[in-house]
């Protein structure tokens, strides 16, 4: 992976089914949120991970028990503009709405700045 200094956006498929296997029904959606944060931290290398409200709605849309088997995520590594921020970079995770996740690969997204 290139240095952590660069700001980058990628789209990933995340298999929630394998991450939530064996988790008690009522705890599946809360665990899914934790697993998404863990995934973003691993792939972007930032301790500060923030989730978009739309992603939270997407995870919880079928209730605590009915988390989708696979999610398409857009994870952006951004600079932290706040004064005296602990971490210089943070990850922002948002959902990508696609009809089917199957067959989609990880893609680097060009930012429109």
TrEMBL record:
Family assignment from sequence similarity: Belongs to the eukaryotic ribosomal protein eL31 family.
- The entry's protein name is 60S ribosomal protein L31
Provide the gene name from the record: RPL31
Q: Which GO terms describe its cellular component?
A: cytosolic large ribosomal subunit
Which is a GO BP term held by this UniProt record?
cytoplasmic translation
| Entry-linked InterPro entries | Ribosomal_eL31 (IPR000054), Ribosomal_eL31_CS (IPR020052), Ribosomal_eL31_dom_sf (IPR023621)
Question: For this protein, what is any one GO molecular function term?
Answer: structural constituent of ribosome
Question: Gene3D superfamilies, from UniProt?
Answer: 3.10.440.10
Annotated organism of origin: Zygosaccharomyces mellis
Q: Which UniProt keywords apply?
A: Ribonucleoprotein, Ribosomal protein
């Amino acid at each position: 992976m290139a240095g952590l200094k660069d700001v980058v956006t990628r789209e990933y498929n995340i298999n929630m089914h394998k991450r939530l296997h064996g988790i008690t029904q009522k705890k599946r959606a809360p665990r899914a949120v934790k697993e998404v944060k863990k995934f973003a931290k691993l792939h972007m290398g930032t301790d500060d991970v923030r989730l978009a409200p739309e992603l939270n709605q997407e995870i919880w849309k079928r209730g605590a028990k009915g988390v989708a088997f696979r999610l398409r995520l857009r994870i952006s590594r951004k600079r932290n503009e706040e004064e005296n921020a602990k971490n210089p970079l943070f990850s922002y995770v948002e959902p990508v709405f696609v009809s089917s996740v199957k067959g989609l690969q990880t893609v680097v997204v060009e930012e429109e700045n």
